[in-house]
């Protein structure tokens, strides 16, 4: 997977991870992948729903050491 940008949203509470993701996504070209790191537990539902509603694709999600990682491909 080729990552175009990594967004560090650790320590931010809702809605900031979504706000920062949206801003970072606007800087990418269609088909590029954004990797997001967050500690906000609500981000799993939030980012999944946001990606779907925005026409993006959530490629992968995992959690390690209390850090949630998402890979979203811009639609």
From TrEMBL:
<protein>
    <recommendedName>
        <fullName>UPF0033 domain-containing protein</fullName>
    </recommendedName>
</protein>
<dbReference type="InterPro" id="IPR001455">
    <property type="entry name" value="TusA-like"/>
</dbReference>
<dbReference type="InterPro" id="IPR036868">
    <property type="entry name" value="TusA-like_sf"/>
</dbReference>
<feature type="domain" description="UPF0033">
    <location>
        <begin position="7"/>
        <end position="31"/>
    </location>
</feature>
<dbReference type="Pfam" id="PF01206">
    <property type="entry name" value="TusA"/>
</dbReference>
<comment type="similarity">
    <text>Belongs to the sulfur carrier protein TusA family.</text>
</comment>
């Amino acid at each position: 997977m080729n990552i175009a940008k990594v967004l560090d949203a650790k320590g931010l509470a809702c809605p900031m991870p979504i706000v920062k993701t949206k801003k970072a996504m606007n800087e990418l070209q269609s088909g590029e992948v954004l990797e997001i790191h967050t500690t906000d537990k609500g981000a799993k539902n939030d980012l999944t729903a946001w990606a779907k509603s925005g026409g993006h694709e959530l490629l992968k999600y995992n959690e390690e050491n209390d850090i949630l990682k998402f890979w979203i491909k811009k639609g």
